[in-house]
Amino acid sequence: MEEIKIGDKALVEMNVVGWDKITGDYQMRPKEDTRTFLASKEIVHPLPAKTYGDGLREAWELAKKIVFYEKRGGFSTSQLEEIFGTSDFDDIIDSHTAQEAATKIAEWEKKQEIRVGDVVEFVETGIRGLVTRADDDGEDLYIVWEDGKNGRFYKSRESLKKTGRAIDIVELLAQIGGTK
């Protein structure tokens, strides 16, 4: 990846959340952020729509996830059951449009994301822990394990599984002087 320097131009994907009729300024918000910025209409340009080729590539990758075996990057039988209610490829393709399948997969993947407050289990040992922090890049997690040990978790996310339990640790940290 190229090094970014002061003065370099950057493209930041933002959502338009409002427009001031008097000044003509747009109210912009970066994706997944709560801050709002003003931008003049002269500098705001919509992102180009996806091309036909982009759509084909995305649809093909989606088909591979559904049809390929897990070792080749596809979903396991149990994952397909969770997502679609069946693991039969024919049934999945016959009863869903590409967009419906993409939406179901995106929703399922969102549920699989490990967040602060999730109780997780380390698959290799079965030991459980509480996620107390996630690095900004989302790669490293900080976990307090059930035996009291804690630290940064470097291993792949596949070696952790969510238990379905979560603890509101953000509120707890706020009580001891942390920020929300």
Short description:
This protein is α+β, with helices and mostly antiparallel strands and 180 residues long.
Protein model, in words:
There is one protein chain. The protein has five helices and eight strands. Helix content is 29%, strand content 23%. By secondary structure, it is α+β, with helices and mostly antiparallel strands. The strands form two sheets. It has a five-stranded antiparallel sheet, with no helix packed on it. Strands 1-2-3 form a three-stranded antiparallel sheet, with no helix packed on it. A hairpin with a 6-residue loop joins strand 1 and strand 2.
Any descriptors?
180 residues; 5 helices; five-stranded antiparallel beta sheet; three-stranded antiparallel beta sheet; alpha+beta; 29% helix
From the N-terminal CA to the C-terminal CA, the straight-line distance is 33 Å
Q: In order across it, which strands form the biggest sheet?
A: 7-6-5-4-8
Helical percent range? 25-40%
Radius of gyration: 21 Å
| Average of the residue pLDDT scores | 82
Multimer state:
single chain
What is the topological layout?
Blueprint: E1 14-19, E2 26-30, E3 37-39, H1 52-67, H2 77-84, H3 89-95, H4 98-112, E4 118-122, E5 128-134, E6 141-145, E7 150-153, E8 160-166, H5 169-175
Antiparallel strand pairs: 1-2, 2-3, 4-5, 4-8, 5-6, 6-7
